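Folded chain entry —
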Amino acid sequence: MAEQENIMVGLDIGTTKICAIVASIDEQERIHILGVGKSPSDGLNRGVVVNIDKTVNAIKDAIAQAELASGIQVNSVNVGIAGDHIRSMRSKGVITINNRDNEITAKDVERLLEDCQRIMLPTDQQILHVIPQEFVVDGQDGISDPVGMSGMRMEAEVHIITGLVSAAKNIYRCVERAGYQVADIILEPLASSYSVLDEEEKEAGVVLVDIGGGTTDVAIFQDNTIRHTAVIAIAGQKVTDDIRLGLSVLDDQAETLKRKHGESYVDMIEEDEVITVPGIAGRPPKEITKSILAKIVQARMEEVLEIVGIEIKRSSYGDSLSAGVVITGGGSLIKNVCPLANEILGLDAKIGIPLGITGGLKEEVNSPIYATGVGLVMHALRTGTTNTQTMLPASSKGTNVEQVMQKITERMKSWFKEL
């Protein structure tokens, strides 16, 4: 059995499902999936907790399944956060170096990054992540780790992600009431990016689109760092609702129709077969053509992708996305979503599944629905199971900057605990 200090746990608290993944890391930093648990979730709405008790029970169930499969007792988890309350912005800061020899120290970097956080926020919002884009020393840009360099003036540009205080606090409360500690809280599209994007894609420029049950998460990468994030309050559950209302069927029937027969692109249907749906309470069965179902699905998927397109334009990186778009999450399993994305976004699209898993229950998580859960585990690998840390560009991994960011993020976590 793996040593407890080498165990990482990801907890994906979604609108339609809660997923727990227990993994270990060996001496070569290879990840092995030890246990997976999944429980239906109906205590959230669009990524935000609306029923504490239902969410707590689903968390307990998912983690219990993962514990049983892995033989590991879970103590703390790395948990994701999403919801349309998430906001992102760019910020800049500048300081002068006052050391006698003008050598930049880790304390100078910490002072600069704290200066970047001096922004006006509504009282109900709090910073979740501070992601350095680059440092500039005496006009020299493109610096990932300025510690040890000489200079008189240092600047930084960062990507700041904020969220509702109450939303983050309720996630903490649910996990703690379930009997576990929160090791870290991570924005879900950032977590998913760890598992489905490789370094070449992040360098070339790529859009990650994670279509979940309650929200669609967007993250844009370029030059190995995050450039733009957004959370859209339209996702797979809306597709199910449209099918239920449009075809006058039960909710579970609508979900089954979406999963088994749903198509995102009417023009690509090869055979317009007839689908029989059992009648309600003894009534005659319904007969629905695949093309009618596809028209309902396509309308909503088009809306999602059109909003993604708006976010791409808003980011100003639309012309720098050589790696196209990677679509993941449960919504990516709806057939022909990639051709639809190609047409609407004008970018090459592919489905993203978790990468970099070496052993254990590798095949069990080989699906887009586990992108966030596996990504949370990979985030824990980078930062340590019991330590919170802000995501950094790949080029600054293990640097003095990363250590400074850990201190800053620990203070953020302490702030939530004090509420």
Q: What stands out?
A: The first strand starts at residue 7 and ends at 13. The CA atoms of residues 8 and 384 lie 8 Å apart. Residues 385-397 have pLDDT under 50 and may be disordered. The chain has eleven helices and 19 strands.
